[in-house]
Amino acid sequence: MAEIGQDMLNVIKESITLEVNGRSFYEHAAEITNNDLGKKMFKKLAEDEISHIKKFGEMFTNALGSDEWKKYI
Q1: What is the pLDDT at residue 65?
Q2: What CA–CA distance (Å, rounded) separates 53 from 59?
Q3: How far apart are CA 3 and CA 11, in angstroms?
Q4: Are 42 and 26 in contact, with CB atoms under 8 Å apart?
Q5: What is the model's pLDDT at position 54?
Q6: Dihedral of CA 56/71/21/26: which sign?
Q7: What dihedral angle (degrees, nearest 10) is formed by the CA atoms of 26, 27, 29, 34?
Q8: Between 20 and 3, whose confidence is greater?
């Protein structure tokens, strides 16, 4: 595997962190909203964040040639 530079490491960490925080935000919003349609929307957005995390994982694995990036998050 190619050496992971600091810039790539920062991109990996920031990308995954944003998605994880987004998921937490949407899950919380779903919990506190009283509107049924709003709850459904926020739950869907939280689920979308999971698929984004998986997609970023695939992108980083393909770009780096392995999933060694996972040890950095």
Answers
A1: 81
A2: 10
A3: 14
A4: yes
A5: 87
A6: positive
A7: 130
A8: 20
pTM of the model: 0.76
Tokens found for residue 69: 């990036």
Amino acid identity, residue 71? K
Nearest to 70 by CA among 62, 1, 20, 60: 60
Nearest-angstrom CA–CA distance, 71 and 33: 36
Q: Which residue has the tokens 């530079």?
A: 5
Domain map (residue ranges) of the chain: 6-66
State the residue for tokens 């050496």. Answer: 3
Q: What is the mean pLDDT of residues 9-38?
A: 93
| Distance from C-alpha of 25 to C-alpha of 19, rounded to nearest angstrom | 10
